[in-house]
Amino acid sequence: MARSISTWTVSIVIFHDGIHDHVYDEVEQSILQQRLTGRLRYVFFYFHLQKKQAEVKELTFHNNLPILKTIDSYPADIFDSHSLLKFFNEIVKPVGTADPSHKHLLIMKGHGAGMGFFAQRNADGGIEMMTAKQLADIIRQSIGKVDVLVPLCCYVQLLETGFMLRAVADMIVAPQTTITFYGIHYAKLFAMLEADPDSSLQAIGENITQNFLPRYHEEPFLSEWKNRYADEQDPNLVSLSANYTHAYDEIVNCVNALTDWMMPCFEPGREELFFAIRRAREHCGELTPSGAFGFIDLHFFMQQLEKEAGPDAALQQLMHQFFRVRSKCMAALHMPPGPPDLYAPSTKRGRSNIKSPLYLSIFFPAFAITDEQLAIREMYTQHDGPLQSFNDACRWGQFIFQFFLRT
To answer: Is the backbone of residue 76 left (phi > 0), alpha (psi -120 to 50) or beta?
Structure first.
């Protein structure tokens, strides 16, 4: 079967930790079970952590039968940009990128740490990861941009992360919470794209979010995830949103206005404002089960702040601005089922990471000092670090450092 000119290249980058082989095999089967038209190109980059080896696969046809064939293999390090840059430049880029109708869908599958992808702990207790800046540079230096970025890595739907990627991705579909190893309903997504290669970004976002939980009501997942995984891998605790990145500059403008409104709380005589902000932060459950990272839902913090600060015309105007920008940013949302944990009395909140996120997180450390929070604070303070352009545009870091010192 000859392949016609592709309209989509589906690139799937997988951090292969040597433990969840059954999950990775299932991603491939989700492609092979489709009625394949040849209009979509599928390429895999497997990073085998234990072997420090990259394995590159591509969908090909032999005697009209589809197979995922290994086309390259080389020593690699996922945390060194050169390994992934080689994949995009030599494998992904050559086909169809000169055609303006050609589109890219990039799915990344591995551990996350909010500020970065493919996270793992070092022997010294620190976190090693590919930062959003690294990923943005890789995309910019190779294929230029992706239409849809789907990082199935825990906690990465952050303002800081999305802002760093806004110029190289039109839409980011990602979790604010943990994400199960089985991930999204790949078969439903690929079936839609095979049937309609002109699917809109909106349709892709809705397909991913709407089909997430139904996937886990099917076998083998209905039995498999319950038998294998603890609380962090419960699909009922996952929140996914599909966000348009063109709105991120406007969100940063909102955060700057919020920062300016809160900064006087450190001045003498403004203790009432300070404690209102502190209470609002206390009411925001953290999005990691351990509370180690200091990630909270930005929208929910604004709602809590409005309640705690009392009637204030400037703050209410800010709230209207946040609501308006949220409607422009969010294309689709999957919230965990059941009553929102965030709105329940603190004594009745379950031990989980649901916290019912509302589309976007932000780093706001508060009342604990952890290795993870210190590592993120270090990223904030580095002059040429991974968050430099975010810090140049956003004054949020100035506030959280003073708040942290005060508390």
So the answer is: beta
In whole angstroms, give the CA distance from residue 35 to residue 404.
55
Give the dihedral of Cα atoms 252, 256, 257, 261; nearest 10 deg: 140
Q: How many domains does the chain have?
A: 2
3-state helix, strand, coil in the chain (%, to 5): 45, 20, 35
Last residue of a domain, one of 213, 245, 277: 245
Whole-angstrom CA distances from 328 to 41, 90, 208, 245 are: 31, 36, 19, 10
For 365-397, write each residue's pLDDT tens digit.
877 778 888 888 889 999 889 999 999 999 999
Taking the whole predicted model, whether its pTM rises above 0.85 is answered as: yes
Q: Tell me: do 127 and 227 sit in the same domain.
A: yes
**Buried/exposed 314-346: b ≥16 CB within 10 Å, e otherwise:** ebeebbebbeebbeebbbbbbbbeeeebbeeee
Contact 130, 47 (CB under 8 A): no
- Digit-coded pLDDT (tens) for 273-330: 999 999 999 888 788 766 788 999 999 899 899 999 988 999 999 999 999 999 999 9
182 plus 299 within the same structural domain = no
Chain-centroid distance, C-alpha 168: 14
Q: Residue 89 is part of which domain span?
A: 8-245
